[in-house]
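User: ok so my PI wants both of these folded by tonight, can you help

Assistant: No problem, let's get them done. Here's the first:
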Amino acid sequence: MIKAAAEEFDRHGYDATSLSRISAVAGLSIGAVTFHFPSKAQLADAVQEEGRSVTLAALSRLTTDATPPLCLVIDLTLELARLMEKEPSVRSAIRLARERPNVEAWSDVWLPTVRGLLDRAYADGQLRTDALPADVTLLVEHLTSGAEAYLRRRMGADPAFESAVAQLKRVWYLALVGVSADETVMPGRPRPRAESGREQPAGFRPDPTIEGEPVG
């Protein structure tokens, strides 16, 4: 019953899913469903709890390994992507948390673990001094949210789509090695002035924060 409910909530969302629809998918009478879950909200709670339990079990397996903390963070995000791809209860827990008010977000299950690992990684010198744990935690949130958005866009549309895990591995590689060979493009750093006579792009407006240069 919970499996059928997870698949329906994942596909159609909370508002568009009914107990009668879930009972039909599960092959049960509506009476059998309401005997265990008198309301849709209670069944949604059970689905979200299942998604959280699956996630916590994965956390427990990974964090018992004596792996350096930054490596554990990477392994954890890859496992989260795998869960999103393979487990309807996890995808459903994510969607239900967005669509139902006043319920725990799925990320609340694993973010404290990620932050703790990144604090350890920073203390151990695994992170650059300017890569603060709070900022890297935010990066992990964006990466997992991006993986979920990718899956929702591609699942069911193309059976040969690239796995979220493989894609996330490439993105992590870029995050770890960096993408820019030019330090002047770093956010917050002033960019060099255009050379005299060089044509500027259409609509170019100089940054007013650089040396007090006026706009316009």
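One down. Here's the second:
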Amino acid sequence: MGFSLQSFEYEKIKILFSKFPNLLNEDFEARMKKAIGVLHFDYLWGACKEAEKILPKCKQDNLFDLIMKLYTKKRKTHQANFLLLHCFENALRSTLCVKIANLYNTSNDDPWFKAINSNSNGLNNILKLFNKRKKHLGGKEAQNSWEVFDCFYLVDLEDIISFHWGEFAPIFKNEKRYKGQDLPSYGTKDHLLTKLSQIRKAKNEIFHNKPTKIKFRKDLEILLLRLEYNLEDAIEIGDIKESIDLRYNYKDVG
């Protein structure tokens, strides 16, 4: 018989719960091996380690259900972080897009990104970034500012802020109150870029399904408020099930 990764990982789980042999029955083994084959293993293993610490304090009859409860909690945290980062990147991208378009368009049209040899170093730097990323348009030409900025990565947005710190500084460093609450400021370009870099690194980990130890939520909320973004409204998305149309029956058929 050849190598089985599911069996290999299950042996680690058996060792972890060796003090609770009564819970390691055939049903648990079958369900865990199936879970190993379809779930994110780092989160699953983390849930197992958390369950192992809980068991001495709280008697459990079904170890698999306990692990799945803890796994679901980790998954919800991951999904919440994903949503927050998605909101942040969209808000930052749109803010920069509007500001740059307003800065460089000199007529009622939107052609600033078609410039070739500009006298502005800031504009030339953005055009270099765009030429580097426009492959994402699939060979088509950008029709407006939105399509240009949709090509940029988060690290590109950091560079654009750096190129145009004079234009963007008031958003991040000026005194600002939100409903009677003083918001912390980012007084220097380096201060802001350091925070944006931390958020970007957290995003890269989370979007690649890796748990992150980077603390980013506080700064993300502050920055969104400074961008005039109502995060409270954004996270009120209700039950996600109503947006997913399942075609098959998932209930047991008698």
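The CA atoms of residues 185 and 191 lie 9 Å apart. The mean pLDDT is 93. Good luck tonight!
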